[in-house]
Amino acid sequence: METNPIKILIADDEPDIIEIISFHLNKAGYEVESAKDGSEAIEKAKQFNPDCIILDVMMPKRNGFEVCEYLRSNKQFDKTLIVLLTALNDEASHIKGLELGGDDFINKPISPKVLVSR
């Protein structure tokens, strides 16, 4: 019986970050889509219906916190894992992300092995 691969959406305004994350997740067997800003992330999430969304906190148009809050207000994403990717290592940012519905944080610079393991 064939199972569908887990679908992951990566939203980051840095093309190099998207390329690195996508490469490692594809290699691990995940189906990956990407978005370059917060508004595109919302549109792609609606179309792609990912199992997991990796959101950069600092993006143009809508930041990761705004996208997270929007997605959590939409029943379609109730069971979607949301991981916030950030260079902000302060406690207040982590608390804010979790309060808005984020499930986890990964700090930049990113370790591909840590990312895949999470």
What is the topology?
Blueprint: E1 7-11, H1 15-27, E2 31-35, H2 38-48, E3 52-56, H3 64-72, E4 81-86, H4 91-99, E5 104-107, H5 112-117
Parallel strand pairs: 1-2, 1-3, 3-4, 4-5
Helix pairs in contact: 2-3
How would you sum up this structure, described in words?
The longest helix is centred in the N-terminal third of the chain and has 13 residues. The two termini are about 25 Å apart. The chain is built from five helices and five strands. It is α/β, with parallel strands linked by helices and about 120 residues long. The protein has a five-stranded parallel beta sheet with strand order 2-1-3-4-5, sandwiched between helices. Helix 2 packs parallel to helix 3.
Q: Count the helices. How many?
A: 5
Bin the strand percentage: 15-25%
Largest beta-sheet details? 5 strands, parallel
Helix-strand topology string = EHEHEHEHEH
Keywords:
globular, 5 helices, five-stranded parallel sheet, alpha/beta, 118 residues
Short account of what is shown:
With 118 residues, the protein is α/β, with parallel strands linked by helices.
